[in-house]
Write a structure and sequence with these properties.
Elements lengths: L2 E5 L8 H14 L4 E5 L5 H5 L10 H6 L9 E2 L4 E3 L8 H4 L8 H6 L8 E5 L6 H8 L3 E7 L2 H20 L5 E8 L6 H16 L4 E5 L4 H8 L4 H4 L4 H15 L3
Parallel strand pairs: 1-5, 1-6, 2-4, 2-5, 6-7, 7-8
Antiparallel strand pairs: 3-4
Amino acid sequence: MAKVLSVTNQKGGVGKTTTSLAIATGLQEKGYKVLAIDMDPQANFTFSLGGEGDDGPTVYELLRGDVKARFAIQRTSYVDLISSNIVLSGAELEFAEEGREYILKKALEPLKDRYDYIVIDSPPALGFLTINALAASDYMVIPMLADIFSLQGVAQLGDSLLRLRQYCNPRLEVGGILLCRYDGRTVLGKRIFETAEMVAEQIGTRLYKSKIRHSVSIQEAQTNQVSMFEYAPRNPGVRDYMAFVEELLAAGV
């Protein structure tokens, strides 16, 4: 039975898609069968995995009920994928029926016996798409940059999480906060780390031990649609992400 993991933050540009990619391809490197789901209309997750968002069914058709989940799956060089495209941006207004927050959860049920993990990349807003992702998930990862604006975003997310767990998914485990593009050599980096620990405690979670250093090689791997673990396995940032995947596994995720 697959474990469903969402990568979420209300703020954009915090390493969310990169972290989703690292988890999905890192688990695949470890021998697990992984399904990646792109819930972001920007479709960066789809592009980075070499998926197709314009030719064939996407997560939009899946949410509409136009196609069964098994027919929306694409095979990529690394993991299976249910892709996204810009059409998904209108979903907030289109889906208004009662129980709409559980559409994805119900659609994925027939697939859970086929995978070890389902990794969901969600958009940078706590709207219909992200709520669907979290309602379907067992576990949640919150990436953030080591800056004050990211801290504010995580603190705001904490208030929303209380309501979401109460009304949509009481079993959702908020695994922790992952610091991305972190530089512990600077005074600012150390201060952000200390403040992030306090914010994590306030929202009932923790900081992961792993911290991700900035890496141009990771960005190059995404641009070239290649797994970072294949493109630059010795790169410090890539090694950090593999350590994070191993930390997740060691925690029983």
